[in-house]
Inverse folding.
């Protein structure tokens, strides 16, 4: 590709100089901030405690206000004991077995049958889709409700939010320390490309290649932390399944409920279930790594194994 004439390149050179100066200034400022923070750093233990403490507080506030906003967006209404006495009796019985304060039950209409265990400020809430009462039989509904209560019992939503907040803080601190190099390489790559009259060629420069490799490193680090958080979420789903099976003694009822929910969700792709069942299975290893829920097949297999194990424990007289 031929370079533009010298006269037409002058504005590009001017832009390149401005871009270079701008990013060099950002690099200098970020380097000054990093050096200052490093000089003022406390001992490693204190720094870790303060950093984790700040991350936990921010994660807690984000979780609390986030669940309140989510609940308001769902447009859910309270289910009164008068209109659904049997459901409230079931809730009370399960909550007593799990040593929980009975959560508030709310009714909503989702794009697919769904149930959500939320932990806003105040009393815990379980939001139920109206379609569940037509889709599930009594045992399946009991198992599903026990699964939601298990999430509340373990404070799964709060724990996951706190872990994610701490890891996001780690990524942010890491990015802060590499930001001087990021700004420097960006400025040199963009500035030199503009000066040569080929602004789109910045990735081909040495500085551009360094910048792209740096982005890949930071992205890979963040991806690894995301995979870790999602893996913990899947483990908590398995744990909630196991707890529901233990409390109700009906693991196959939960397995049947999960299958029904999966089939009912396939025609539409609306609100993604947060706490009930896995995403639609796709043969994609990356999607599996990033999924917040195990596949329905995995969950059903584990529940079937629990049912088999409980059968072997029955004494034959």
């Amino acid at each position: 590709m031929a370079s533009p004439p010298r006269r037409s390149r002058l504005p590009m050179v001017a832009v390149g100089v401005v871009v270079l100066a701008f990013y060099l200034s950002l690099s200098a400022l970020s380097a000054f901030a990093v050096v200052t923070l490093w000089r003022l750093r406390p001992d490693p233990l204190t720094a870790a405690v303060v950093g984790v403490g700040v991350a936990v507080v921010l994660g807690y506030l984000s979780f609390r206000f986030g669940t309140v906003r989510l609940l308001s967006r769902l447009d859910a209404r309270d289910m009164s004991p008068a209109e659904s006495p049997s459901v409230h009796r079931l809730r009370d019985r399960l909550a007593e077995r799990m040593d929980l304060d009975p959560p508030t039950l709310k009714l909503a209409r989702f794009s697919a049958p769904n149930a959500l265990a939320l932990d806003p400020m105040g009393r815990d809430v379980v939001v139920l889709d109206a379609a569940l009462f037509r889709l599930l039989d009594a045992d399946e509904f009991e198992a599903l409700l026990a699964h939601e209560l298990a999430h509340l019992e373990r404070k799964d939503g709060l724990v996951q939010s706190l872990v994610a907040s701490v890891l996001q803080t780690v990524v942010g601190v890491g990015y802060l320390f590499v930001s001087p190099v990021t700004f420097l390489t960006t400025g040199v790559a963009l500035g030199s490309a503009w000066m040569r009259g080929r602004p789109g060629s910045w990735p081909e420069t040495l500085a551009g290649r360094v910048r792209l490799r740096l982005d890949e490193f930071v992205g890979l680090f963040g991806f690894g932390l995301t995979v870790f958080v999602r893996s913990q979420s899947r483990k908590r789903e398995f744990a909630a399944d196991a707890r529901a099976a233990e409390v109700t003694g009906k693991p196959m009822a939960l397995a049947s409920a999960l299958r029904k929910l999966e089939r009912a969700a396939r025609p539409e792709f609306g609100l993604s279930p947060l706490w009930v069942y896995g995403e639609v299975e796709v043969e994609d290893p990356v999607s599996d790594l990033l999924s917040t829920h195990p596949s329905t097949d995995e969950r059903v297999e584990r529940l079937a194994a629990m049912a088999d194990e409980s059968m072997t424990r029955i004494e034959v007289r």
Notes: The first strand starts at residue 77 and ends at 78. Strands lie at 77-78, 104-108, 115-118, 125-129. The two ends are 89 Å apart (CA to CA).
